[in-house]
UniProtKB/TrEMBL annotation, chain A:
InterPro entries to which the protein is assigned, alphabetical: AAA+_ATPase, ABC_carbohydrate_import_ATPase, ABC_transporter-like_ATP-bd, ABC_transporter-like_CS, P-loop_NTPase
Protein name: ABC transporter ATP-binding protein
Recorded GO MF terms: ATP binding
Source organism, top-level taxon: Bacteria
Gene3D superfamilies membership: P-loop containing nucleotide triphosphate hydrolases
Sorted UniProt keywords: ATP-binding, Nucleotide-binding
SMART domains reported in the protein's UniProt record: AAA
Species: Nocardioides pinisoli
TrEMBL record, chain B:
Transmembrane portions of the chain: 40-59, 79-99, 120-139, 166-188, 200-218, 251-271, 301-321, 352-369, 381-403
Taxonomy, superkingdom: Bacteria
Sequence segments annotated as region (Disordered): 1-29
Keywords, in A-Z order: Cell membrane, Membrane, Transmembrane, Transmembrane helix
PANTHER family with a match to the protein in the record: ABC TRANSPORTER, PERMEASE PROTEIN, GUANOSINE ABC TRANSPORTER PERMEASE PROTEIN NUPP
A Pfam family it matches: BPD_transp_2
Keyword Iron-sulfur: no
UniProt name for this protein: ABC transporter permease
Annotated compartments: Cell membrane
Annotated InterPro entries: ABC_transp_permease
Organism, scientific name: Nocardioides pinisoli
The keyword Transmembrane belongs to this UniProt entry's keyword annotation: yes
Classification via CDD domains: TM_PBP1_transp_TpRbsC_like
Membrane topology term: Multi-pass membrane protein
């Protein structure tokens, strides 16, 4: 099925989210829609899916103009959407989820579960999905849940599949598997729209690339285009994709972790005897697939975990057993991995969020009273310095884009006198322009002589920032290797395999 | 919140994509957030709607209206004028009872209803502030009743049994009552902080505990029961422990209203200008971010419950030492502990909003009696209107649909 969008315009008040966007997707083609967060990609797809009505322009399927008044119409016309946040019911089985909204019923309204099961099996076998129709969705890994979403779309005979940021939640392996699935779907003659802001993925699978910036199509590109060219189109200016950093000026070993063990509430060992140290002026990056103990490691350092043994020393002082506030006051800056949950108070303003970890003493609090003038001046300054794009310092953080939210967190953490910076997933869900900015800040912190611990599941980021790399697998250290270790070896280590030629125990 | 319509402030198209995931409310926090973030306009509309529905109730319960309804098709004008008379009569009586009585000649009597309103408003404002403060920290304090009962009983005990000059006696009685209220509420805070026990269940149960403790004290001579009496009632307060009238003997308005105003100012400063209030708001909006930023969430909860209990306790003290100084009884709370929840909701948990809501509800109370006296309309109608206000506030989509306001969610 061929999709054609002609001059789609969608306005929200004075804001033009989509400005005369036209594009054509042929059957058997993977068409990537590339753009930063907030460029208008999702709005466009919501128009296509009938969730929004376009103010101008038309949607054509196989050269026929369509008028969708809701997702139901879009589905009936053969459009399937794989949402970024899965629309699945966790306590239902795969088959139940697939039939949901499209139930075939037998006598007196009994569900025909067998038909749904058979359908799941058939699609699953055809594309090699390996999905058990009777498994509960909540028991499935994220990558498989996504396949259930795809099966759901295919079971309704979708000819055009829209993937909205599908890799945001996937591990590198799962991403590779998804790419393979997309290729198979293309071979089967489906038309695919692939929305993303990740350059590597686009170049790996796309046949055609349309770049959107500020609601407009700024150009088309071939998959052979270089990363730098694509990034420049996306951001509207040349972007440094490589982090420029000089050789580290190493100081003392100021941050030392020994035999750190973290047990969670249900008694499972999450971090199992980790030891490492970071010198002043050095970045140690923690690599590993999500869920191998990274979260618990950073939280244990901060004092956010309850059952921790071992030793965490900063400047010779023990941090374990201290309260979060004491750890922060010891000079630890913390960028949490989930900024919405742990980093920011969404309903509070930018200014208020900038003092979140300094609500006890000067400069923002004096004898129990807020020093509002000081806070406002400080916020104003940081807004400029960290290039936070917001109307003013009174804007609620929840209304900012991901990149700007993260800049607020980074501004807050880096404006104190730090003795250690712990940055967990510092650029997750952040646009290319902001990634560049945040990486520069991390390197600047390192160069000012602060030890930095970066945790990232994106190998690109690990390689870009690290002076040394520590690979975690199931809560244990696989090895600590130099920053220039080849990706292939790191990838192997992330599966738990320790290379034989790895010298020493701790590099 | 997360749709593009409300995002005009961002310079670039600010629709949320992968990075800015919709701010997913923490489990169980969405209701709280809705309560705190509800907009003032919706509150006004809720009041308007409730008054309209109240009109229907007034009309439906009016005898003349029912009579004329029998021949509404023959002489519709009779019916409509009867409806008008009933509704107009009801609300003017309410106004005369609550604000200004134009039917009497003497100025002092004319404005007497207003002072009655202020008198009824004082405990509602105090307790409303206590409950609202809890809301801001993410806590549902349903224990207003128990906190009022024990605080009132403690203040009463001091007021009855001590012989001191007024300059010491009155402040001491107020202080003792306030402290008891604070600690009674703090039990729920401590249990939540230490064990995770839900404050709703704990405060409800503590209401029963407080009630029966007071029942025991009131039926035990030597504690609170008046000597030689079999009724669960104490002796009246000593003169030196009674909140003085502030407008002279002709009015019942006593010092409690000024205490309520001071409490509003204090709560405003606390929430908007103090570091503690900042932490309270952070904990209420996003406890996990507060925790990650070094704020001790449990301690904040305990502190909030202490302050909330003190404020609610003051409402109890206001009753015992001011409004009904002729003795501690089991119903000294007069339902204020629960009305406070309504007041806090209507006031959107903001001190000035609570002040306004408390005044409105005080007016309902003062006017309700005169409505009944003047027009024979059951006072229950006023209670129905009050309840409807809460109902409409609790269902913003309903109000929005009725007034065809733009929906908050994208279609």
């Amino acid at each position: 099925m061929k999709l054609e969008l002609r001059g789609i315009t969608k306005r929200f008040g004075s804001l033009v989210a989509n400005d005369r966007i036209s594009l054509t997707v042929e059957p058997g083609e993977i068409h990537a829609l590339l753009g930063e967060n907030g460029a208008g990609k999702s709005t466009l797809m919501n128009v296509l899916y009938g969730l929004y009505r376009a103010d101008e322009g038309e949607i054509l399927l196989d050269d026929e103009v369509q008028h969708f008044s809701g997702p139901g119409d879009a589905m009936a016309a053969g459009i399937g959407m794989v949402h970024q946040h899965f629309m699945l019911i966790p306590v239902f089985t795969v088959a139940e989820n697939v039939m949901l909204g499209n139930e075939s019923t037998g006598f007196a309204g009994t569900l025909d579960l067998d038909a749904a099961r058979a359908r799941v099996k058939e699609i699953s076998e055809r594309f090699g999905f390996h999905v058990d129709p009777d498994a509960l969705v909540e028991d499935l890994p994220v990558g498989v849940q996504q396949r259930v979403e795809i099966i759901k779309a295919l079971s309704r005979d979708a000819e055009l599949l829209v993937f909205d940021e599908p890799t945001a939640v996937l591990t590198p392996q799962e991403t590779d598997e998804l790419m393979e699935i997309m290729r198979q779907l293309r071979e089967a003659g489906k038309a695919i729209v692939f929305i993303t802001h990740k350059l590597r993925e686009v170049r790996a699978v796309a046949d055609k690339i349309t770049v959107i910036r500020l609601g407009k199509v700024v150009g088309e590109a071939e998959p052979t285009a270089s990363n730098a060219e694509l990034a420049a189109m996306m951001v509207g200016r040349p972007v440094e994709l490589v982090v420029h950093k000089g050789p580290p000026k190493l100081g003392e070993e100021v941050f030392v972790v020994k035999d750190l063990r973290v047990v969670n509430a249900t008694g499972h060992v999450q971090v199992d005897g980790i030891s490492f140290s970071i010198r002043a002026g050095e970045v140690l990056a923690v690599a590993g697939v999500q869920g191998n103990g990274q979260t618990e490691l950073t939280e244990a350092i901060l004092g956010l975990q309850d059952h921790v043994t071992g030793s965490v020393r900063l400047d010779g002082k023990e941090l374990l057993g201290r309260s979060v506030r004491q750890v922060l006051d010891a000079g630890v800056g913390f960028i949490p991995e989930d900024r919405q949950e742990d980093g920011l108070v969404g309903n509070m303003t930018i200014a208020e969020n900038l003092m979140l970890n300094r609500s006890f003493h000067l400069p923002f609090v004096r004898r129990g009273s807020l020093q509002i003038d000081k806070l406002r001046a400080f916020a104003q300054e940081k807004l400029q310095q960290y290039d936070v794009r917001a109307r003013d310092i009174d804007t609620a953080c929840g209304n900012l884009s991901g990149g700007n939210q993260q800049k607020v967190v980074v501004a807050r953490e880096l404006s104190r006198d730090l003795r250690l910076l712990v940055a967990a997933q510092p650029t997750r869900g952040v646009d290319v322009g902001s990634i560049e900015f945040i990486h520069k800040q991390v390197v600047a912190t390192r160069d000012s002589g602060v030890p930095v611990l970066v945790v990232s599941t994106e190998l690109d980021e690990v390689v870009a920032l690290a002076d040394r790399i520590m690979v975690l697998y199931r809560g244990r250290v696989v090895g600590i290797v130099p920053g220039d270790t080849p990706r292939e070896q790191l990838g192997l280590m992330m599966t738990g395999e320790r290379p034989k030629d790895l010298e020493g125990d701790v590099a | 919140m997360n749709d593009a319509v409300t995002n005009e402030q961002a310079p670039a198209p600010a629709e949320k994509e992968s990075g800015g995931q919709p701010p997913e409310p923490g489990k169980g926090h969405s209701l709280m957030r809705q309560i705190v973030a509800g907009d003032a306009f919706a509150g006004v509309l809720a009041v308007v709607l409730a008054v309209l529905v109240g009109s229907v109730m007034v009309a439906a319960t009016d005898d003349t209206v029912r009579e004329t309804a029998g021949y509404v098709f023959a002489r519709p004008s009779d019916f409509f004028s009867a409806v008008w008379d009933a509704v107009w009569g009801a609300y003017t009586a309410l106004f005369r009872g609550a604000v200004y009585n134009n039917l009497v000649s003497d100025f002092a009597t004319q404005i007497r209803p207003l002072t009655e309103t202020l008198k009824f408003a004082a405990p509602l404002i105090l307790a409303g502030l206590g409950v609202g403060l809890g809301f801001r920290a993410g806590l549902f304090n349903i224990g207003g009743r128990g906190q009022m009962l024990l605080a009132g009983a403690a203040a009463g005990y001091v007021g009855i049994n001590f012989d001191l000059p007024i300059a010491i006696h009155l402040p001491l009685a107020i202080l003792v009552g306030t402290v008891v209220g604070a600690f009674w509420a703090a039990i729920a805070g401590v249990l939540k902080a230490r064990t995770g026990a839900h404050e709703v269940i704990v405060t409800i149960m503590l209401n029963y505990v407080a009630y029966y403790l007071l029942f025991y004290a009131l039926s035990k001579e030597g504690l609170l029961q008046a000597p030689g009496s079999a009724n669960p009632k104490s002796l009246p307060m000593k003169e030196s422990a009674v909140l003085p009238d502030i407008l002279g003997d002709r009015f019942n308005l006593h010092l409690g209203f000024l205490i309520a105003l001071v409490a509003v100012a204090f709560a405003w400063w606390l929430l908007n200008r103090s570091a503690l209030g900042y932490r309270i708001r952070a904990v209420g909006e996003n406890p996990s971010a507060a925790r990650s930023a070094g704020i001790d969430v449990g301690r904040t909860w305990i502190t909030v419950m202490l302050i909330a209990g003190a404020l609610v306790g003051l409402a109890g003290v206001n009753q015992v030492l001011g409004t009904v100084p002729d003795g501690v009884t089991l119903d000294l709370d007069a339902g204020i502990g629960f009305d406070a929840i309504t007041v806090a909701l209507l006031g959107r948990s903001r001190p000035l909003g609570i002040l306004a809501a408390g005044l409105l509800f005080g007016a309902f109370k003062a006017g309700g009696f005169s409505m009944q006296a003047a027009e024979g309309i059951p006072v229950d109608i006023v209670l129905v209107v009050q309840s409807l206000i809460v109902l409409f506030i609790a269902a913003p989509p309903l109000v929005r649909a009725i007034f065809r306001l733009p929906a908050k969610e994208a279609k």
